């Protein structure tokens, strides 16, 4: 530490300052330290968020002032098939991608945490997709799943399987979005699980082995519970990510064919910036946010009750 | 005894084989991007399936560089990412210090409010945010991207987790010696935070470099584009010219992949030390 020892004079002057004023000083310091982040978040997140709620109550066209129409935009949502399709797709995407990327991430982490030659190289390879932009990832996907010249269909045909209409068949398009996302996201899940696994002492595995626990039993009854905190963190992060998925869908499929891969975020973007119906777009956004809040609240509750039970 | 060791050996071979297969699946799309970027147009249009190109060419790169201000876009990406990373690291460290070490009224609420912004997709607030940057007269400048991107709730969260791990006695004793919080922050916490700073800086750099949704709105003029926006724009112009698109994608991807591979050890360690496990 480079702090100078206090000189007697300043010491006496400093001492009475601690006590009530010291605590007040801590409060002032707290707010002062938080000022930059709170100003940034306040101005560029919360002010626009309040704006979005206000705009969602308006009829708008272009970027002029709108007229208030109450909850009409929200009412419109009920009879809008594209909205329902997008809401369903967002939910499906979340329900499919979250557990799959966590399971694959945990599997890869366990594999690459075991004794293995060139373990570091394998780890590096698996996390490389994390460094690649969503747009580039999606364009590689476009290249891979092209119906005329895509490498995936060429590979399928090369091994004697029929080609798949990745671009014109809705289900296949949805699957391609999921596959590209998994390629992109599993590395992150593996990384967090690896950090979690490194906190577990190998000695307890040895003990379990001596007691005759099988590999699966050790995984199921030791590894899985012990990486619980990582799982909870990843559950929250994956759900947040899945609800907000944009780059991949926007670039890979554009929400098509016939809205088969449209999600709430791409629908909100199209409505706000292509159709320029900002009021309705904001209403879609607010609904998305409420859905996410609900999902996250449920996760909190479940994890807390589980903590109490175990 | 021998059966156990034999079983151990086949288990090991199985694991190696599995690791090789998984790595191949992960690497193949990247390999294919490189192949396409260096392939001639005629070869890409050919129907048959080849795992490697017959001839390598730079014509895709030449075409992209001739048609688009690629170097300007590259410079924009660097400038925006570096400035965002600097602001974001500073704001995250200060915020993390406050949430980790200081007690004040409303601290928990403010922390939850900060974290809750993670749930707000930029698409939800895009319309008013667009109006806001127009009102602030920064629309059409770098700042229109930089300022809304710089506030990182996740950065604050990581910083708090890391700083909580710093022994409290260090901070307390400096306080008793009469150091103010700014002093404690600067001479005690910051030097201990080097791995954290590296993680935060790199994470922010990576995220901003790859960011897409908001820059797509905020950067309407061609000459202000960042690489991902330029990439999409170019794809729109080039259509299914995969050679050109992949050549440009490679320019977008390579710097971050290299940085990532060079610094990944520190990155992983820094991540682990923030106590997320």
In short:
Chain A is an all-alpha fold and 310 residues long.
Q: What is the string of helix and strand elements of chain A?
A: HHEEHHHHHHHHHHHH
CATH topology (level 3) name of chain A: MetI-like fold
Q: How much is the average pLDDT of chain A?
A: 86
Multimerization status = heterodimer
- Strand-residue fraction of chain A? under 5%
CATH superfamily of chain A: MetI-like
- In the CATH hierarchy, the architecture of chain A is Orthogonal Bundle
Q: Tell me the span between the first and last alpha carbons of chain A.
A: 44 Å
The largest sheet of chain B is: none
Give the rounded overall mean pLDDT of chain B.
Answer: 88
Tally the beta strands of chain A. Answer: 2
What is the SS-derived class of chain A?
A: mainly alpha
How many domain units of chain A? 1
Highest CATH level, the class of chain A: Mainly Alpha
Helix amount of chain A, in percent? over 70%
Strand order of the largest sheet of chain A: 1-2
Properties at a glance:
heterodimer; A: 310 residues; mainly alpha; MetI-like fold; two-stranded antiparallel sheet; 2 strands; disordered N terminus; B: 277 residues; 14 helices
């Amino acid at each position: 530490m480079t702090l100078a020892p206090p000189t007697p004079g300043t010491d006496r002057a400093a001492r009475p300052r601690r006590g009530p004023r010291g605590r007040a000083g801590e409060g002032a310091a707290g707010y002062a330290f938080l000022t930059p982040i709170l100003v940034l978040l306040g101005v560029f997140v919360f002010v626009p968020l309040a704006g979005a709620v206000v705009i969602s109550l308006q009829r708008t066209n272009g970027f002029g002032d709108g007229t208030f129409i109450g909850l009409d935009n929200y009412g419109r949502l009920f009879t809008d098939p594209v909205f329902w399709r997008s809401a369903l797709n967002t939910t499906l995407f979340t329900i499919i991608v979250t557990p799959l990327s966590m399971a694959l991430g945990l599997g890869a982490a366990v594999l690459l945490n075991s004794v293995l030659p060139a373990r570091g190289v394998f780890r590096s390879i698996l996390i490389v997709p994390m460094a690649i932009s969503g747009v580039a990832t999606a364009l590689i996907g476009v290249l891979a799943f092209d119906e005329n010249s895509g490498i995936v269909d060429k590979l399928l045909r090369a091994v004697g399987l029929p080609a798949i209409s990745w671009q014109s068949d809705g289900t296949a398009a949805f699957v391609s979005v999921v596959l590209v996302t998994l390629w992109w996201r599993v590395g992150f899940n593996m990384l967090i699980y690896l950090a979690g696994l490194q906190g577990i002492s190998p000695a307890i595995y040895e003990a379990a082995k001596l007691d005759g626990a099988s590999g699966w039993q050790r995984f199921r009854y030791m590894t899985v519970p012990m990486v619980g905190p990582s799982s909870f963190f990843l559950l929250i992060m994956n759900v947040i990510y899945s609800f907000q998925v944009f780059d991949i869908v926007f670039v890979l499929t554009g929400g098509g064919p016939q809205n088969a891969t449209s999600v709430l975020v791409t629908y909100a973007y199209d409505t706000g910036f292509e159709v320029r119906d900002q009021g309705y777009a904001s209403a879609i956004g607010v609904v998305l946010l409420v859905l996410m809040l609900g999902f996250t609240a449920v996760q909190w509750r479940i994890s807390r009750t589980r903590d109490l039970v175990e | 005894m021998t059966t156990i060791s034999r079983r151990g050996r086949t288990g090991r071979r199985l694991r190696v084989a599995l690791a090789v297969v998984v790595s191949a699946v992960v690497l193949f799309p990247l390999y294919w991007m490189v192949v396409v970027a260096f392939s001639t147009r005629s070869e890409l249009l050919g129907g048959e399936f080849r795992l490697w190109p017959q001839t390598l060419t730079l014509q895709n790169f030449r075409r992209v560089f001739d048609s688009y201000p690629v170097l300007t876009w590259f410079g924009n990406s660097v400038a925006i990412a570096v400035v965002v990373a600097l602001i974001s690291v500073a704001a995250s460290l200060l915020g993390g210090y406050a949430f980790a070490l200081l007690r004040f009224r409303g601290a928990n609420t403010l922390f939850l409010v900060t974290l809750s912004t993670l749930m707000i997709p930029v698409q939800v607030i895009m319309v008013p945010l667009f109006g806001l940057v127009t009102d602030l007269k920064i629309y059409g400048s770098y700042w229109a991207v930089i300022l809304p991107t710089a506030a990182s709730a996740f950065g604050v969260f990581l910083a708090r987790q890391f700083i909580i791990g710093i022994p409290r006695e260090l901070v307390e004793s400096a306080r008793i010696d009469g150091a103010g919080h700014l002093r404690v922050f600067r001479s005690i916490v910051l030097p201990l935070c080097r791995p954290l700073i590296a993680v935060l800086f790199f994470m922010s750099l990576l995220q901003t470099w790859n960011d897409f949704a908001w820059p797509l709105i905020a950067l309407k003029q061609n000459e202000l584009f960042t690489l991902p926006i330029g990439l999409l724009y170019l794809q729109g112009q080039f259509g299914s010219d995969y050679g050109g698109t992949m050549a440009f994608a490679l320019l977008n991807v390579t710097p971050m992949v290299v940085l990532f591979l060079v610094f990944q050890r520190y990155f992983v360690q820094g991540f682990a030390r923030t106590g997320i496990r």
